[in-house]
Amino acid sequence: MYILGIETSCDETAAAVLGFSPSGRAKVLSNIVSSQIEIHQKYGGVVPEIAAREHVLHIIPVVNEALKKAEVKPAQITAIAVTAGPGLVTSLLAGVETAKTLAYVWQKPLIPVNHIEGHIYANFIAPTEPIQFPAMVLTVSGGHTNLVLLKKHLRYKIIGETRDDAAGEAFDKGAKMLGVGYPGGPIVSKLAQAGKADAIKLPRPMLGSAGFDFSFSGLKTALLYGLKKDKNWAKKIPAYCHELQEAIVETLVAKTIKAAKQYRVKTVMLSGGVAANRRLREFLAETVKQKLPEAQFSLPQLAYTTDNAPMIAMAGYYRFKQKKTVKWEKLKMDCNLELK
Ligand code: KG4
Ligand code: ZN
User: Fold this and answer.
1) By residue range, what is the domain housing residue 190?
2) pLDDT per residue as tens digits for the range 268-287
3) Do residue 276 and residue 142 come from a single domain?
4) pTM exceeds 0.70, yes or no
5) Pocket test for ligand 1, best of 253, 306, 308 (most atoms within 8 A of CB)
6) Is 86 in the pocket of ligand 1 (CB under 6 A)?
7) CB 8 within 8 Å of CB 83
């Protein structure tokens, strides 16, 4: 079977075709992304109206290219999976309306997919070993930071979330204060490599608090005051980037390990755009090995960390198997869609 995945929740217009063997093994036949990063860069962040306009311009060519590259004809497609939320309302609309139109014209079932669920399912695209349940998933991006207990396929329980900024947002806002550009995560991470440990000290927010919630706005404020006090900060940008990254990564890893222990999971899983961060990937892997030697560790391939369409098709496959499809008239977009 073939699933067409469509993703337009923020600033990437993406489509992909995944082929599935009868045993459920996925093959990514195409993965097309039209990125708007360069366009939004000059504004220092995503401008929703511009994002929407770009999606409308690119969505049909991107879908066409995904089909062409996969060498799959519309008639061969089994179902269309599309991000129904959460995300920017005008961005989501472009993908959802396109998916509805294609489903109507091609007479195909539609599969609404939650964007966060998509990030989680990036782990199921060609995993190195079969993933065992239950899993504790740290899912971190520009819009969300969650600890999700994945009991079995499509059964989620959110046990921790951010009370203010998301982890990716902490990278992005920190980068803005340091004047190093947008999007902040990859830039801070690169600059951090040249920074020295312990040259600067920032707090690890809520590290010792009860429960599994996160908070990153205090870190942002601490960085702001740190920079105000330090006349020479412009000469120490790599050191600030290093400490910002350490503060975010240490907090994320500590809470994830605590949650994984308490829920006695078999797998610890990482997902979302911030999962592209090398320090986070390595430190979480190391800590799981040390503190939870019995547990499996899973992380998505780099290509499926930031927003992409294969992850949406992958989650769509499991939804399709559980008959969670809708007719085109019934597909609803929800910019605050909850994970359930
Ligand atoms: O999942 P994603 O592509 O979009 C949302 O759903 O938000 O995540 C984007 C976020 C941005 O905040 C970006 O700065 C962050 O992921 N990010 C990174 C890295 N690559 C992307 N953060 C830290 N290190 C990276 N290498
Ligand atoms: Zn995302």
Assistant:
1) 133-300
2) 999 999 999 999 999 999 99
3) yes
4) yes
5) 306
6) no
7) yes
